[in-house]
Amino acid sequence: MKSDFSIKGRGAQKNTFNKFSAYNYETRDDFLEFCRLEGEIADNNKTQYIPVYPKTIVNKVTSPDVGMSYSMNMYQGCEHGCIYCYARNAHEFWGYSAGLDFERKILVKHNAPKLLEEKLKSKSWKACTIVLSGNTDCYQPAEQEFQLTRKCLEIFLKYRHPVGIITKNALILRDLDILRKLNEHGLIGVNISVTSLSEETRRILEPRTTTIKKRLEAIKVLSDNGIPVNAMLAPIIPGINSHEILNLAKTVAHHGALSMAFTVVRLNGAIGHIFTDWIHKTLPNKADKVLHQIEECHGGSLNDSRFGIRSKGEGKIATQIHDMVSLAKRTYFKNRTFPKLNTDLHASYKDGQLKLF
Hints:
It comes from Maribacter dokdonensis. InterPro entries: Elp3/MiaA/NifB-like_rSAM, MJ0683-like, rSAM, rSAM_sf. The chain is an alpha/beta fold and 357 residues long. It has twelve helices and ten strands. The strands form two sheets. Strands 2-3-6-7-8-9-10 form a seven-stranded mixed β-sheet. Helix 9 links the parallel strand 9 and strand 10. Helix 3 runs parallel beside helix 5 and helix 9 runs parallel beside helix 12.
């Protein structure tokens, strides 16, 4: 029999096989039916925070088409549960699944602020923008409890070091006081992800993220305070949000974004299986059409790993997306520029205070 069991409030609906593991955990329909008949809970669906203590926190980014040189992540795994997230695959390196484990087993790097400070004080380190959330969102729900992002921002300010932020959570406004101080020195740039203007689309694509309304409010508040914001309209998924590009661009520009960026969705590694399972359960009438259109953007596959092409796509549908983005930029972002962050101050603050001599 086919079960109608679903994991509420999550993106992934199962744990995919970890390619690095010799074991595979499977939730069978007969087990789910047994739990139903016995009145037992098959899955408590709770988020687990797991403390970890890495030896380093700042990562050099070698991919030539990512748009950042260094990144750091205070958390691994992300409770937001975005079904398309490329970071899911990284959870396999920690011994977990890229599916539900990615959303429910969150690794918390409690020593992140200490490691960051050691890095910035290092005599060999030369200032270069470090981006928070190169892998998972630094303002995901865990941040409310652990406040590692805020502590790291305080260190960036102390050492006058440039920092970028990528997030889709309005929790960033909690740290407006620090962001203002960083911006006084040209040390902060924020990227807010806005995938759709439809709350229903947002809910199924990104189940535990901030609402679209609050994200737009975050763009406006940051912009009104002079903090530069780039809107990430990513990923563009054919058949789901590709028709929204112009309206998305117009709306984020109206709220003060200085620039916009986009990617065409690609479903690499385990994400292809997770997304395929999800869309057949969530949007069964559109599933085949959407999957075929994604494949058309990547030469017949759900994924393309070639640098420079993997996030842009190829073919007619990808060309249509690019043309729409170009029109949006010309129409709504003319004469707007996202500033380059200041790297000149840090050398004088290596010991945590301005050197006078």
